[in-house]
Amino acid sequence: MAAHLEEQQELDNFKYFWKSTGRWLFALLMAAALGYLGYTMYKSHKASKNQEAAAVLAKIVDKMQAKASQAEVNADLTNLQQNYSDSIAAAQATLMAAATEYDARRYDVAEGHLNWVLQNQKAPLIQALAAQRLGIVLLQQKKYDAAIAALNTKVEADFEPLLLEAKGDVYAAQNKTKEAAQSYQQALEKLPKDAIERELLQMKLDSQK
């Protein structure tokens, strides 16, 4: 009888717990489970999107190698930019397009591509490459102030020499020897001692003396 009363008391306690807090605990557990499921699905979706973007990039490379029309290449590039804007593949394809336009001396088109990369891709290396190339494109157009502004883009410390060297080139093109020398010197100071770029940088620095 005592055992039965004890079991009944435990059952009553559980019912009270469920009424007072159990349903909230269950809701929290369900929310956590759904959150984890959503995160897992998001990661899976992200991986799938990246694979799709990589496939489009591969198509662009194949078409460029086959010397397909610019209209065909641009159609795939637009697809990447509109549907996979935050993917590395979209940034890579746009950087390639910028290089093609630069070689063809269509600097304004190259400038647009590089600005798109800076606005849509935040990977540190991609940001640094886009800023450096944008500075060079603007230099070719003699947009010196805009070039310096692009090269002042905040990047990780490892990539600062890349932008500083380009900044020195912009100043050198304007015969601003003091500013050019300062930029080259700063780039040298930030480069590792065994970096192969040091020799060329030193030559540029010496040319400003």
TrEMBL record:
Domain Ancillary SecYEG translocon subunit/Cell division coordinator CpoB TPR residue range list: 15-207
TPR repeats (start-end): 161-194
Subcellular location: Cell membrane
Membrane topology: Single-pass type II membrane protein
Chief location: membrane
Domain of life: Bacteria
Membrane-spanning ranges: 24-42
Pfam families from the UniProt entry: TPR_21
Any one GO MF annotation of this record: protein-containing complex binding
GO cellular component entries: plasma membrane
InterPro entries per record: SecYEG/CpoB_TPR (IPR018704), TPR-like_helical_dom_sf (IPR011990), TPR_rpt (IPR019734), YfgM (IPR026039)
Gene3D superfamilies tied to this protein: Tetratricopeptide repeat domain
Cell membrane listed as a keyword: yes
UniProt keyword terms in alphabetical order: Cell membrane, Chaperone, Membrane, TPR repeat, Transmembrane, Transmembrane helix
Family, as annotated: Belongs to the YfgM family.
Protein name stated in the entry: Ancillary SecYEG translocon subunit
Native organism: Neisseria mucosa (strain ATCC 25996 / DSM 4631 / NCTC 10774 / M26)
